[in-house]
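Following up on my earlier thread - several people asked me to post the actual chain instead of describing it. Fair enough. Here it is, all 187 residues.
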Amino acid sequence: MKSTALFSRELFEGGYAKQYVHNNEYFSLFLTSCDLAVENTSADTFQQKHQQKTMDISSAQKILKGDQYATLTGVEVLEAGKGYCKARLIITKKHLNAAGVVQGGAIFTLADLAFAIASNSHGPLALAINVNISFLAGKSEGVLYAAATEVAQPKRLGAYDVLVTDEEHEIIARFNGMVYRKKQQLQ
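Reply from S.P.:
Thanks for posting it. Predicted structure:
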């Protein structure tokens, strides 16, 4: 009997990646607003790709610890890799504005922290030179996630997209950022 199971669903470069297991084979389905691509890989190849994306989480935690405002806000780092970071914010009463939804500054802080870790994952100190955020939906409870991805292989300037979603994968905000990489290494 053949069986197919949803392995994971993640935000990935402006769209969704759904990964399925079918007869010990992993299938990745990448969905964006412009295209659809299906990639079939063996379990070993899938695991190698996933491990390449993951960097030492302690380095990401070190960046978070240095960002005292994000820490006070309650932002947590869940995953980090070269040019990638996924962070979380559990919504509490302190995050709500007068309208009863999460305050824009809290959402921005979550996205900005994911952006900072993704952009500093290559070693050189990366500092934001331009950012933009669009708030697309309000949220009053639950959990928010920010997934930051690199738009292109970085040089002196780096561009990043960050999608902020809730636990049902509804997009709450979209954040774009650009960094300038200094010659000095991140401390």
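The first helix runs from residue 43 to 53. That should answer part of your original question.
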